[in-house]
Amino acid sequence: MGQITLQGVQKSFGPVHIIKGADLEIADGSFVVFVGPSGCGKTTLLRLIAGLEDVSGGKILIDGKNVVDTPPAKRGLSMVFQSYALYPHMSVRGNIGFGLKMAGLPKDEINRKVEAAAATLNLTPYLDRKPRELSGGQRQRVAIGRAIVREPKAFLFDEPLSNLDAALRVQMRIEVTRLQKQLGTTAIYVTHDQVEAMTMADKIVVLNGGKIEQYGSPLELYERPANLFVAGFIGSPKMNFVTGEPALQKGAATIGVRPEHLKIERDGGGGWQGTIAVAEHLGSDTFLYVDAGALGMLTARYIGELSLHGGDRVSLMPDPARIHRFDESGNALRG
Amino acid sequence: MARMATTRRVMISTAAAWLFGFLIFFPILWMGLASFKTELEAFAIPPSFLFFHWTTENYATVQERSDYLHHAMNSIIIAGGSTLIALLIAIPAAWSMAFSPTKRTKDILLWMLSTKMMPPVGVLVPIYLIYKSLGLLDSRIGLVFILCLGNLPIVIWMLFTYFKEIPRDILEAARMDGATIGRELVYVLTPMAIPGLASTLLLNLILAWNEAFWTLNLSTSSAAPLTTFIASYSSPEGLFWAKLSAASTLAIAPILVLGWFSQKQLVRGLTFGAVK
Ligand SMILES: Nc1ncnc2c1ncn2[C@@H]1O[C@H](COP(=O)(O)OP(=O)(O)OP(=O)(O)O)[C@@H](O)[C@H]1O
Ligand SMILES: [Mg+2]
């Protein structure tokens, strides 16, 4: 079991409020990703749940029990740090088994569990090496091994993949997701990479300035962003925002259209007229950055190759069913 | 071109390093050589470098006139004792400053270091009088105490810098792994701190071994360490270069050997943890 509930959780460092009242229900076995810009309080929120930081207000419930006064070790959670935080003087075996040793398990049981965890993570050949004799990806796997071997109620990950190169990051992303599904353990995963968030999460928490902006499944966030911030943060390339006349026509202060929901036509069609400033041809996609005069710069995405180039005139036609409307304060308008 | 320039640069800097190394080592070499000369040859002009009449009579005289082992024992007790006590006080102090710093931590550290800027001779008279009335003059305990206090600020500073280097994440990982403070100390912190502790210990041993101001002023015979033993050969009756050299060679030999075998730790210690 690993159901985690936050009720009005607050945190200040001295006079500065970092977390301004977070409410959250994390279902047992789900994979929840905290995402948001740098400094928004993702790490702080994770450390509050871990118990490495004391809350300034509110409650944290794990399986219905308030744990705000429970020390980290007794919360039954395990954490994977961005820096891996392996014990440099211990072998891989020692690192993975340390938690079990502290729990007072008999030696042969520790060995059995460590070897099982190592086998799952393809670490068996490295069991007797020291962390400094491992590559970044292997170290990362040791850190994950250390977390899974204790069979915790939940895993806490703080940007665990950010020190890896791009290819390895994709591979580890898949491995972590697969492992979590296989073990069925609740996971909270912090990242500022929204692709990671979209691909790994069952549910995403979008944080901004210490506040939860929206909590929902990746597709909910993509299709029905609650406000301008979420709309701009989720999705790549970023959603286009248009104010002024076109927005007023729709009864909104701002309207948003994702680049993939703009139909690209050669000059002369209806829609928004503009000149291509830059065209990026990736083969699989074509990205156009269009200077649309009073509407500002618009980004359009075409699946496949489109032979348009810088300087060409185009007209962009927003898909009417895919237009997001926002009021003056930035909240989404529905209906 | 570029390659040639670099090889040439490497050659020049290697030569310069050897030259400086030799310049720094030369006085010690000269002292070693002088200890094997007769008193006459020791200050002959022009000096003879290797081609003189080698003799060990100085060492025999020195051992006969003053008991080397007695002084060496005192040095070991005073340097070792003051270092151990300083570490016992400094470890918890540096520990708490590194791991739970407060607003005043930096000020306290600076204040500690500032005590090292005062010339010791400024407090010689009061300390001497206090020692005299406490009956600590020419006692090992008295010397252990003063050297320990004298080096404590440096020991605390060094340990503080080492402890600061231990990543907090690792301590937090241990806490998440369920280690109590005591076990965190035994299984995680101490093993990681050992290199720092070792270099601090070595450097402090050397500082205490070589300390001459307090040992010369506060001891005469029964507690006198090797510094006093050396000084006794520059006496009002005249300077005995060869014997002085023999005494000095004997005095620095143990610490030279120790230093040789712990070079790596020492370099780390001297750079105060700045270079990893
Ligand atoms: N111990 C602390 N004392 C004071 N302020 C802190 C402390 N820890 C974090 N903060 C502040 O809290 C805010 C949130 O920090 P946090 O580390 O949670 O951000 P983050 O969302 O994880 O950012 P990043 O993506 O860069 O890791 C930052 O403005 C930071 O300066
Ligand atoms: Mg962070």
From TrEMBL, chain A:
Its main location: membrane. InterPro entries: AAA+_ATPase, ABC_transporter-like_ATP-bd, ABC_transporter-like_CS, ABC_transpr_MalK-like, ABC_transpr_MalK/UgpC-like, Mo/tungstate-bd_C_term_dom, NA-bd_OB-fold, P-loop_NTPase. One of its GO terms (cellular component) is ATP-binding cassette (ABC) transporter complex, substrate-binding subunit-containing. It comes from the Bacteria. GO terms for molecular function: ABC-type maltose transporter activity; ATP binding; ATP hydrolysis activity. It is found in: Cell inner membrane. Residues 4-234 form the ABC transporter domain. The keyword Nucleotide-binding applies. The keyword Repressor does not apply. Keywords: ATP-binding, Nucleotide-binding, Transport. It is a peripheral membrane protein. SMART domains: AAA. Belongs to the ABC transporter superfamily. Involved in beta-(1-->2)glucan export. Transmembrane domains (TMD) form a pore in the inner membrane and the ATP-binding domain (NBD) is responsible for energy generation. This is Sorbitol ABC transporter ATP-binding protein /mannitol ABC transporter ATP-binding protein. It comes from Bradyrhizobium yuanmingense.
UniProtKB/TrEMBL annotation, chain B:
Belongs to the binding-protein-dependent transport system permease family. Keywords: Cell membrane, Membrane, Transmembrane, Transmembrane helix, Transport. It is found in: Cell membrane. The chain crosses the membrane at residues 12-33, 76-96, 108-131, 143-163, 184-209, 240-261. PROSITE patterns: ABC_TM1. Pfam families: BPD_transp_1. CDD domains: TM_PBP2 (cd06261). InterPro entries: BP-dep_ABC_trans_perm (IPR050901), MetI-like (IPR000515), MetI-like_sf (IPR035906). Its main location: membrane. It comes from Bradyrhizobium yuanmingense. It is a multi-pass membrane protein. GO terms for cellular component: plasma membrane. This is Sorbitol ABC transporter membrane protein /mannitol ABC transporter membrane protein. Residues 72-262 form the ABC transmembrane type-1 domain.
